[in-house]
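Format notes (please read before filing issues)

Several people have asked whether sequences and structure tokens are stored in separate files. They are not. Every record keeps both together, in the order shown below: the sequence lines, then the token lines. Line labels are part of the format and must not be stripped during preprocessing.
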Amino acid sequence: MRALPPITITPAILTSTTCAEPSAGEAAWSATTAYKNGDKVFSPTTHRLYEAVARKIANVTIASNGVVTWAGHGLVADTPVVFSTTGALPSAIAAGTTYYVLADTANTFKVAASAGGSPLSGSGTQSGSHTVATTANLGQNPATTGDSWWTDIGPTSRWAMFDLLRNTGTTTASPLTVSLTPGQRVDSIGVVGIVADTVSVTVTVAGATVYTASANLLNRPTSGWYDYFFGAFRYRQEFARFDLPPYTNAVITITLTRANGPVTCGGVVLGTSVYLGATQHQAESDALNFSKIDRDDFGTAALVPRRSVPRTVQTLRCRKTDVDRVLQLRDDLNAVPALWSGLDDQESGYFAALLIVGVYKRFTINMDQPDDALISLELEEV
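Then the structure lines:
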């Protein structure tokens, strides 16, 4: 069993990729554009997608000179707003009409009938409770203004392969080529959630290739001659290597290819692995099923398919001299996703069942033996 804590991939490490950003349907955010409910934008600083919230609403007071008081409103000039009331608004302001903010102070503002127009002065008798709502996210940067204006819906396609906390992946036309310069020693790599015919990893140092590994992911499991000729093909979705040469100036290139259709990479984990011990017999592969299965009084089933979360339960034999290092790893990976591999041999039929990108739910060390410890490990995918 090996644990691979991931290093953080930043723009400085991700030196190039054939997956463009923004990709189709991902418009870059602009401070001068008004976004409607449901509009999606891409932030070049966070590499994430955001969906516009319908509107931001607050109860306000309106002075007789048309000054609107809204504490900490955060509205910039020319933001469109709409008023409503339970009684009567000042005579110059009509409910349901779009007006435009004239920036004043952090807690007050006036409005105009058009962007950059003259301020409206309220007059007449007011009554009831007034409410103002913005109709757009004009000037509100999704990377800094938070969920009052935008909903974070996940990473952009280019960066989805590095977001281990979400069930997302990078999808693009074949081939997908990713070049990384970690700038530190790494000796292991894991690629999961793959839809491709082949995967290869190459390590170069000063332009010279020092390591290469590849795998054919298109597989037809056979148990006889009929399966050999007529059985369905499936894709192996995982690839891991724990023998990368640990150069500090290495360039690591990952390439996924597919003859027909786009390729997908669900996750890339890169770092220095820690050997925990030998996986013992009776390891278990299971799944937490979140599908909904209900039956009525007549036994008719109502089925709502939902995600199943893979989990494993394993017992490891660890050398006594390695226990201190394992204790440190347990602290480091507290609620931190990592790649966990029960086997090093990717050709083993058990390899995929014991490979998880996830967190530990149970990590118990039994020190009953004089020279070896037994580790009980329960893992769940994120």
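For reference, the curators noted about this record: The first strand starts at residue 2 and ends at 4. The chain has a mean pLDDT of 89.
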